[in-house]
Design brief:
This protein is an alpha+beta fold. It is 24% helix and 35% strand.
Length: 594
């Protein structure tokens, strides 16, 4: 273990112990924190040259861009990678906070190139690692894996080695709760469906197979919806006649946070939008987001008013236009009355209701078309039965009977045509002998007890103070270890853009563990003379991070804003910066990954 790692461990221990001593709480309480229910996705695409035949128009790229556009306008994280028998390109997960962030992701997707060979294990393993590094409690991770065929391995790599790596990666995904959605593009009929289905089944995802790339946008919509417990609602498509044609979009209730209207067309379309009052709404405008590509257009309505909206679409004559709608709801299903223990013959009363922001939803219109069932699985026999629940207009009620002295798993599900919700499963232990409780065990007479002694607070506090002083001394000693002895952790991914032509270099992966103390950006750029000004941009190691300091006039930006690095600034995992050079009209993009 190097000194840098020791320093990080001691710092963390000291911080935790001090918080515990001051607050008198447990480590679980310290780390218990609510997180936004957001999505963390990695899109992994087969980039073998065989895709040139199965997806000549790069519809796969368009489908992934549609997935990005359907993501929430704020808070979701999406990463992208392409693989052959190695990782060709990789974009660290980017937190989406603006339209600019989505454009950055889509621009990266447009630049994906292809190469020989295919090894599915490489793509799955890297995608799992990416999500494992950035795992946060309360968020919803997923992987979308797109492949067009069997493995085509390079020399030196056996199928057995690939299978072992794939099995290990799938197991890790399952253990981490990361579902993998697989898409098999079966253009030549040679797709190994069993492998892809096995990956999805093992991790709790879904598997899709299509013989034409034209179906990929529809499939990506299905994956997006399924992962967030939504449903794709097909709207009436049509054949364009060159004039505006009407499509009605119904917003069913006030709990719709976003409505994503995707318009699939191989040719450009024009759109107009009218709200339920008949007022035309400019596209785009406040509350109306519009994005488009070669294969689709997407209209996103933010907190739309309830009622019938009218979308007018004008396409090229004879062009077939398909339209799908995905609502995004701010709803959670909560169940009451499910016990953890019971006995044979018990009648269990169940009550479930929808909540928004932790408050019960009082919207009879929302409940109106909902159907609800209790799903009860006998864990001993593996049999599942569904018990219909009564919809009262404000909650769902019902009952069921424990039939046998077995263990059960129970959960409530509600759904309508546009979404579904499920409660977390509850395990019910009913293995008691038909309600007979064991006879109480006789207890021996209690022995006389001595008077309770006062708690030794002075010793506890004195010991805590001594422990803190010792930790502080250790931290002081470690913090004074010379910087020259510190080691780096992680790597920097470097891309160079010619600002005149827009040409972007292939990513260069620079592992930092070969350096001690500090490293200059010029060194990482292999001392190229045209980048001599980067000799005064220096990186030093931190605790699972790096610090950057610059003595140049180069503009450094982070998340589109100027980043003052005249004094050391920390870069953490997945941080991305842009350095605009002064002596040449080029910029350098850096991603720090550990």
């Amino acid at each position: 273990m190097n000194k840098l790692t020791k320093h990080g461990i001691w710092s963390a221990l000291a911080s935790i112990l001090i918080v515990l001593l001051i607050l008198g709480t447990s480590p679980a309480a310290v780390y218990a924190a609510d997180a936004d229910q957001k999505m963390d996705a990695v899109l992994a695409m087969d980039a073998s040259t065989s895709m040139n035949d199965s997806d000549r128009n790069k519809v796969a790229n368009e489908a992934m861009k549609l997935f990005v556009d359907m993501a929430s306008i704020s808070g979701d994280k999406i990463g992208v990678l392409s693989y052959t028998d190695q990782i060709m390109r990789e974009k660290a997960p980017l937190t989406i906070n603006s339209a600019k962030d989505k454009e950055e992701l889509k621009s990266f997707i447009d630049q994906l190139s292809r190469g020989p060979y295919t090894d599915i294990a490489v793509g799955v393993a890297e995608a799992v690692k990416v999500l494992e590094r950035g795992k946060e409690p309360g968020r919803h991770p997923l992987i979308v894996l797109l492949s067009d065929g069997n493995n085509s391995l390079n020399k030196g790599r056996t199928q057995q080695q690939s299978d072992q790596e794939l099995q290990a990666a799938v197991k890790k995904a399952k253990d981490l709760g990361i579902p993998i959605y697989t898409i098999g593009l079966n253009a030549d009929g040679q797709l190994n469906k069993d492998v892809l289905e096995g990956i999805s089944k093992e991790t709790g995802g879904k598997s899709f197979v299509t013989s034409t790339a034209d179906m990929l946008p529809q499939i990506l919509s299905e994956i997006f919806a399924n992962h967030l417990k939504l449903k794709v609602v097909p709207l009436t498509g049509f054949t364009a006649n060159g004039d505006y044609q009407d499509v009605i979009v119904t917003i069913p209730n006030a709990n719709v946070m976003e409505a994503n209207i995707s318009i699939m067309s191989g040719k450009p379309v024009e759109v107009k939008l009218f709200d339920p009052s008949g007022q035309e709404r400019k596209v785009p405008s406040d509350g109306v987001v519009y994005s488009k590509s070669a294969a689709y257009s997407l209209v996103k309505l933010l907190k739309p008013a309830q009622g019938d909206w009218k979308l007018q679409i004008k396409g090229v004559s004879q062009d077939k236009i398909n339209i799908n709608l995905v609502y995004n709801y701010d709803l959670e299903l909560v169940a009451n009355g499910l016990p953890q223990t019971a006995k044979k013959g018990d009648s269990i009363q169940v009550n479930a209701l929808l909540q928004s922001n932790g408050q019960p939803v009082a919207d009879a219109e929302l409940y109106k078309n909902l159907k609800s069932v209790l799903q009860l699985t006998d864990l001993d026999t593996k049999q599942t039965k569904e018990v219909p629940l009564t919809n009262s207009g404000k909650d769902f009620t019902g009952s069921f009977t424990i039939a046998d002295a077995h263990n059960y798993e129970a959960k409530v599900r509600v759904e309508d045509s546009s979404f579904f919700r499920e409660t977390a499963p509850v395990t019910i232990n009913a293995k008691g002998a038909s309600g007979q409780q064991p006879a109480p065990t006789p207890t021996a007479p209690a022995e006389p007890t001595e008077p309770a002694k006062p708690f030794p607070w002075v010793m506890v506090i004195g010991g805590a103070v001594l422990l803190i002083l010792l930790l502080a001394l250790v931290l002081f000693i470690l913090s004074n270890v010379k910087q020259a002895n510190k080691g780096f952790y992680g790597q920097l991914v470097i891309e160079i853009i010619d600002e005149d032509t827009g040409e972007r270099s292939s990513p260069q992966y620079r592992k930092l563990n070969a350096f001690k103390g500090k490293v200059k950006l010029h060194q990482l750029l292999q001392l190229a003379p045209e980048f001599a000004e980067t000799d005064k941009i220096v990186f030093t190691p931190g605790s699972d991070s790096v610090f950057i300091i610059s003595q140049t006039d180069c503009l450094v930006e982070k998340s589109g804003r100027a980043f003052d690095v005249t004094k050391p600034k920390e870069l953490k995992n997945n941080d991305r910066i842009k350095i605009t050079l002064q002596n040449v009209h080029k910029s350098i993009w850096l991603d720090y990954i550990h």
